[in-house]
Amino acid sequence: xxxxxxxxxxxxxxxxxxxxxxxxxxxxxxxxxxxxxxxxxxxxxxxxxxxxxxxxxxxxxxxxxxxxxxxxxxxxxxxxxxxxxxxxxxxxxxxxxxxxxxxxxxxxxxxxx
Amino acid sequence: xxxxxxxxxxxxxxxxxxxxxxxxxxxxxxxxxxxxxxxxxxxxxxxxxxxxxxxxxxxxxxxxxxxxxxxxxxxxxxxxxxxxxxxxxxxxxxxxxxxxxxxxxxxxxxxxxxxxx
Lengths: 113, 117
Known about the structure:
Number of strands of chain A: 11
Radius of gyration of chain A: 14 Å
Distance between the termini of chain A: 41 Å
Shape of chain B: globular
Number of domains of chain A: 1
Structural class of chain A: mainly beta
Mean pLDDT of chain B: 90
Low-confidence stretches of chain A: none
Oligomer: heterodimer
Strand content of chain B: over 45%
Order of helices and strands of chain A: EEEEEEEEEEE
CATH superfamily of chain A: Immunoglobulins
Helix content of chain A: under 10%
Distance between the termini of chain B: 36 Å
CATH class of chain A: Mainly Beta
Mean pLDDT of chain A: 92
CATH topology of chain A: Immunoglobulin-like
CATH architecture of chain A: Sandwich
Largest sheet of chain A: 6 strands, mixed
Low-confidence stretches of chain B: none
């Protein structure tokens, strides 16, 4: 069975801090790793990673994948209160007979002013 | 149009009611998904439709019945639900579930918050 483990499960920081969120995985036939941000409703897409060592960047957020060590990190620099959310890591694999996303439990990030 | 829409936003139903959740996308995506998300938990996959055919059923109880009338629409019919079925029901879509690298990127709808009394 595919597994995705995120750490920490929750994190409280002050505005301006830099945070690193971790995601490790064990999946059959890895295809991609995705990061989503979930506030009150639906998860919104942040990054899709398929290749090791290539950093994806969007503003203050960046992410990188290590397929050898089976993990990814999501960095957020100069955090703002609007970054407060649950950050979900999901990995697409075929643990079973069909490809599907397996989600980690998420990291709850709280950014205080 | 780059969004997935879901109706209703909120639904309260009794255990003897029959109701349906609706999901729509106009991105030309050929794969659509239903997820169930309980509070403070990650989404759990329920069903996957690929090219309007059911391709994955994650051992979901028969009181949940999915339907894909066409490539843009996905319904979830609910009957004789239990209070523990109360959750956020998320619909997602992707271009397909095939082999292309970006074709399976899933976009989520806003969800339907379901309460079963």
